[in-house]
Amino acid sequence: MLKPYELLESVLSQIEKNIRNNINAIILAKKYSISEGHLRRIFKFAFKQSIASYIRSRKLAASLDDLLKTELNILDIALDFGFDYEQSYIRAFKREFGLSPGELRKRRKIVKINPPLNLFRENKLTNGVIFGPDIVMVPKFYIVGKRHSIPFSDSITMAPEMAKQFWEKERILINEQVNPKVYIGLTRNLNIEKANSDYLPSVQVSNLKNIPPGFVGDKFDDTFCARFRYIGQHHYLEINRNRAREMYDTIWKNVKFRNDIVFFERIDTGLYDGNYCQMEWFTPVNLEKK
To answer: How many angstroms separate the CA atoms of 271 and 148, rounded?
Structure first.
């Protein structure tokens, strides 16, 4: 099984090499011995677009060469790039470029294409790959969990262990969970002088009215955040000290924190299929111009 960076790098390469052939998610999934559904989810998680739309966009871009530099008829071009019918090619072409193939041939208008996707070496981790940051709006949500005060020096080791303990033994006691498959680990109150922080392994709930004894609730308000996306070749419960340190070392290089330092990781455990774990990491950002 390929590591995440090598898998995505190879998928992108195969798409470009087979741009004139019948390449699709089904064929690629079989080549890499993973499920088609999981390949689609990983690709969209990594690149924020579906693999089908990316392949179609790249085929349409490649077809411009034949359209403008040869006298091939449109049907032959359509079939050569894997479209079943001339009309399906024309419809897709018009959605992509805003005019039909025939109109482009006649008018010779400049059109914008979507270039090939690339992976950068700085995205590569030992057993994973990380993307970001991108800026997102996180809507308000409520969480309930077990709060722990963690020394900075032990946070990389203790946080994963506390997360595992909570997920395997404690979350079942929490009522009114919004999505029982999603884990949220919230860090607040980083105290530089005392060299510690509060870590809250938790699940999202609909409200904070029914918190079980021994648990605490918290609220994250509507906030613009920097988001990183991580794909690792391991189970989500195997995010250990070394993997966490490598991930956070990469994130710290790319993030300037606000004064009210807070961040959280989000793991949808339902996305794990036995091969690759997916995780998101968020921290508030200030978008005001200075």
So the answer is: 27
